[in-house]
Design brief:
Elements (H helix, E strand, L loop, with lengths): L3 H10 L8 E9 L10 E6 L5 E5 L5 E8 L1 E8 L5 E8 L4 E7 L9 E3 L14 E5 H6 L10 H4 L5 E4 L2 E4 L5 E5 L2 E3 L17 E7 L13 E7 L8 E9 L4 E10 L3 E12 L15 E15 L2 E15 L9 H5 L8 E18 L2 E17 L9 E20 L2 E20 L3 E24 L2 E13 L3 E14 L6 E11 L8 H9 L2 E4 L4 E14 L2 E20 L6 E19 L7 E24 L14 E3 L6 E11 L3 E10 L21 E12 L3 E8 L7 E3 L8 E2 L4 E11 L1
Parallel strand pairs: 1-7, 6-8, 12-15
Antiparallel strand pairs: 1-4, 2-3, 2-5, 5-6, 9-14, 10-11, 12-13, 14-15, 16-17, 16-41, 17-18, 18-19, 19-20, 20-21, 21-22, 22-23, 23-24, 24-25, 25-26, 26-27, 27-28, 28-30, 29-33, 30-31, 31-32, 32-33, 33-34, 33-35, 35-36, 36-37, 37-38, 38-41, 39-40
Length: about 750
């Protein structure tokens, strides 16, 4: 690849970034007179698995553990003659958690002191994050199902599903990282299925803007997944099965085990339902879905300095495209779907191998080659009316992510490379209008980043970095984009104020059209211009406030985009082509609130977003407006107008309860103020700028028997509140929210 040798040379010669799935733990242990205590044993044990780390304090009473995967842990400090201390902590990615342990002289009646819970406060980062554990996923209503994204939408402000796609902060260009490795997918509007089965996730960290230079290009949201590894098992397995309304079932068989040096985890899953995608009318019609897949994870600790990690997945999904069977309905007057029998086949697979090398307690190296395959096939029935559309899009990505970090004095230096080659193959056809058209395009990116996190005082962290990208496809683009930030922790109060300013470049899809397909587009008053990458400018300010185990996080942000990436379709067909809008402006403020264990029975959580997502100017790339006979038909009014997925207010409030006799219950209320109204004229019954507001409630309750069997029941949209969410022409036209669903689930753990 171009520049690859140069980038790799820079990576090796300059010590730089922590593997983005890891954080560091360091601390000081002192006696009642504040003198350092050497030789103290410090153990760090995962809250929900057997994963553990240990260290011994030095002559200064200090300890450091350099590579701890993000998640919840219990730290235990023990030394002869002193009372044992325990503290619950949350580790976030690319962070350093600094702890202080004041030991007390042990007495006959005092053997262990348990300190207060340490909230997920991170004073060294400017990135707002939300962390969801495997236990959160298992107990959140509906979150454990294969195709559910409730683990995100219930906990992350400004995250919601509309036209069957996850949106966040007003955009839908989102990145998934698996075990810290970024899995590329540049195809927008072609995929419906989630990237990973929730049952394979141990911890999910969601980052919302203000990324450091090592976290890549996707402005709107990054999902960093720590997969299950086998440390939660010791020659054990789990079988999960469910059955419920719409003949739905979700099933998973998982096995795993570990020793001191080796851990493995594998799973198989299968699911089906007569309800899959958001329906075109209130009652789902032609809306079945099914899928199956497998996942595997291996970890091998060669020695104390070297670790090998491997994750892999292969899954396939099928969705019927919902339709409105009544040709006289008002929806069919705007977008006829009564004659459609379309379906969507998707296959996704990836493999990522990671070598983690610890040079010393402050220097860490990660090298990760990866491969990702993605295929989305939109297929019609031969009798479809008015159009029978075929759209087959396949992407192959092969690349390398490498990163290294070190600490020098008060500086944490970081940097690395990220590069992949992509082969995109597309096939489009419309029965009776367009014979099969094939296109094959090669492309890829090469990226280099450098960053310094400087801590001149314990209460102040300054970050500055730069990322450079070279994109090669049907066009070539280069971008250099800086990012700076500051985090200030107020002494004694422990409040953390943060600020960020930065630029982002998001590579465009490789999709292109020509020949008869281009002529078809022009016959439908559209044409094609090469897509260019989206360029974003973001500034954000926020504060974290801890209080007696509670943690409130609030922020305000503004993202100004040029070449905002969206999608559109050719005529009345289901050929979806990416587009770039001249500009977009997204502004908002967000709030999250997480409680400690309340009265020993449960936790509460809240996520709220108030934002406005607007666009300006004409479509500048991809499927552009084309009207040579009347150029004024492509004129766009000046100023801003709402994006189709703009929702001003989004609120989730939930409570997870642990009751006596091994019973748990969880409850979540969702409120949305309504998305933009794309049709304000008759025959649409909605004349306002926004579609109706909507509120739904979900609940789950379960009981564990003998630590082996857990029975639960989930009820989603209990009141069966139905409302039109979206009237954009994507995957079947209009989209109503999900109907009421009730299902029972059995979890059985066994030893082998």
């Amino acid at each position: 690849m171009r520049f690859f040798a140069l980038l790799l040379f820079c990576l090796i010669c300059v010590p730089m970034i922590r593997a983005s799935v890891f954080g560091q733990i360091q601390g000081i242990v002192h006696d009642p007179h504040h003198r350092p205590v050497p030789g103290v044993h410090v153990s760090v044990h995962a809250a929900h698995s057997d994963l553990s780390f240990s260290a011994i304090t030095n002559q200064d009473g200090a300890f450091r553990i350099p590579a701890v995967p993000l998640g919840d842990y219990v730290v235990t400090v023990s030394s002869e003659g002193f009372a044992t201390l325990q503290q619950t902590i949350t580790v976030t990615s690319d962070s350093t958690l600094i702890l202080h342990f004041p030991l007390e002289i042990a007495t006959v009646a005092q053997s262990t002191t348990i300190t207060a819970e340490h909230p997920a406060l991170n004073p060294d980062t400017v990135t707002p994050t939300t962390q969801i554990s495997r236990m959160d996923i298992a107990e959140t209503p509906g979150a454990g199902r294969t195709n559910s994204l409730a683990m995100i939408t219930d906990y992350v402000p400004g995250a919601y599903m509309t036209h069957d796609m996850l949106h966040m902060r007003g955009g839908h260009q989102l990145s998934w990282l698996i075990d810290g490795v970024s899995i590329p997918n540049t195809n927008i509007a072609s995929n419906i299925a989630p990237q990973i089965d929730p049952g394979d996730i141990d911890t999910l960290e969601v980052d919302r803007g203000s990324y450091n230079a090592g976290l890549g290009d996707r402005t709107y949201g990054i999902f960093n997944v720590v997969p299950r590894t086998g440390f939660e098992y010791n020659r054990e397995g789990e079988f999960v099965t469910s059955i419920g309304s719409y003949y739905q079932t979700n099933n998973q068989l998982s096995l795993g085990s570990h020793s001191e040096k080796f851990a493995w985890f594998t799973s198989l899953n299968g699911n089906r339902s007569n309800y899959g995608l958001q329906p075109a009318i209130e009652q789902p019609v032609h809306d079945a879905e099914n899928g199956y897949g497998g996942f595997g994870s291996l970890i091998y600790n060669v020695n104390t300095a070297n670790q090998m990690r491997l994750v892999s997945q292969l899954r396939t999904d099928y969705y019927q495209i919902p339709r409105d069977p009544d040709p006289d309905d008002w929806q069919n007057q705007l977008y006829p779907s009564s004659g459609l029998r379309d379906g969507e086949h998707e296959t996704d697979g990836y493999v990522a191998f990671t070598w983690v090398h610890t040079f010393n307690p402050t220097t860490l190296l990660q090298v990760s080659p990866f491969y990702h395959y993605n295929s989305a096939k939109y297929e019609p029935h031969s009798d479809d009316f008015p159009t029978a559309t075929t759209a087959d899009q396949t992407g192959n990505y092969a690349g390398l992510q490498a990163a290294i970090s070190t600490s020098i004095a008060k500086n944490a230096l970081s940097g690395g490379v990220y590069s992949y080659e992509q082969h995109e193959g597309d096939l489009f056809s419309i029965q009776g209008q367009l014979s099969p058209q094939n296109s094959n395009v090669n492309g890829g990116i090469e990226e280099l980043w450098l960053e310094d996190s400087y801590k001149p005082a314990p209460w102040l962290t300054l970050t500055g970095g730069e990322r450079q990208t070279h994109f090669q496809g049907t066009i070539s683009e280069d971008a250099i984009y800086p990012r700076i930030g500051a985090a200030v922790q107020i002494p004694k109060l422990h409040w953390v104020f943060r600020g960020f300013y930065g630029h982002f470049y998001q590579p465009p899809p490789l999709t292109t059209i020509s020949g008869p397909l281009l002529q078809l587009a022009q016959d439908n008053n559209t044409s094609f211009q090469p897509l260019r990458g989206e360029r974003d400018e973001e500034h954000q300010f926020g504060v974290q406030i801890p209080f007696r185990g509670w943690l409130l996080d609030a922020d305000t942000f503004q993202t100004r985009a040029n070449n905002f990436l969206d999608h559109s379709n050719i005529g009345a067909s289901s050929i979806y082509i990416p587009v770039t809008v001249d500009g977009a402006l997204i502004q908002g403020w967000e709030l999250t609130l997480r409680s400690p264990q309340l009265w020993k029975y449960g936790r509460a959580h809240l996520a709220y977003s108030n934002q406005i997502a607007q666009q300006r100017g004409p479509i500048s790339g991809g499927l552009i407006c084309y009207s040579p006979g009347d150029p004024s038909a492509c004129a766009v009014p000046p100023g801003y107008s709402p994006l189709d997925h703009d929702q001003r207010n989004t609120l989730n409030v939930g409570l997870d309860g642990n009751l006596p006799d091994h019973i748990y219950g969880s409850f979540n209320i969702y409120y949305g103020s309504g998305f933009s109204n794309g049709y304000t004229d008759p025959p649409s019954p909605y004349s306002g700028d926004y579609l109706p507001a909507h509120t739904t409630a979900d609940a789950a309750m379960g009981k564990t028997f003998s630590d082996k069997v857990t029975l639960s029941i989930n009820a989603l949209n209990i009141a069966n509140t139905r409302v039109l969410l979206d009237n954009s022409l994507t995957f079947g036209g209009f989209h109503y929210n999900d109907p009421r669903q009730i299902y029972g689930e059995v979890r059985y753990r066994f030893h082998f």
